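> Could you send the Universal stress protein prediction when you get a chance?

Sure thing. Input:
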Amino acid sequence: MITIDAMMVCLDLSDLDEKLVAFSRSVCERLQVRKVYFVHNIKLYELADDFREMLGDLDLGKEVESNIADIVSEQFGNITDYEILVGQEPITGLILADLVKRYKVKLTLLGKKMSDKGTGTQGIKLLRILPCSVLVLPETASFNIRKVLVPIDFSENSLHALRLSKALSDQLQLQLETMHVYRLPTQFFPLISEEEAVKKAVEVVKGKFAGLQKRHPEIAGVPFTLVRAANKNIAERIALHLQKGHHDLLVLGLKGNNAMPGLSLGSVPTEVYNSDLKVPLWLVYSEDEIR
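Output:
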């Protein structure tokens, strides 16, 4: 059973906050979440001087906390223990990363607007710096999750994502499908037959998945789909398969990079995040990678 000792919900005082808080309630209703931290950081240096003068002696932190409390009261209620944290630090990512470490946060919820409403650069920064798994909620996403898709590349990280997805699907009685996107070495065409190359690639990948099922009997019954990248990149193929299969949640495993001070997001998760997905995206780090 999936249990989450501490979950953090990042709010930005936009219209998306109400939906994000309501989604956090949905997560708590489905999973065992012991405590939730609703967090916002006020970047005072971004305020114009004339606006600061207008504020006068107003305690902006208390006003923001009161605003968040109203949203939480309406959209979250008392489903589990929670705390509202409002900071005033110059760099949002650093204070959030510190909160993750201090309160041993296992999962962070982020909202995401469509690309025509923002660049999403702040979200990418947070994904790179937060030492925990992240669940991204697009503004158009539904809370009604029935089908889960987890792409794998046969690494230990994608296997961790698959195990989590299987546990989630068993716990909530969801449909689960895994997929792999493969590429062919087109630079060797026409020296080798494309038909033979496809046949060999399919044979090799199916053999890998069969071996994976033997080593991990818990995933033996999970449906597996093999997709050729062809003229699209891996992220585009994942997005197309997600839409075609009417999946409601996408889970991706992430790999840490010990040579860097932060965590490495990777090109495919970055491209997937930057696309206008209409379903929640769960980006998963294993405990070993976090350590």
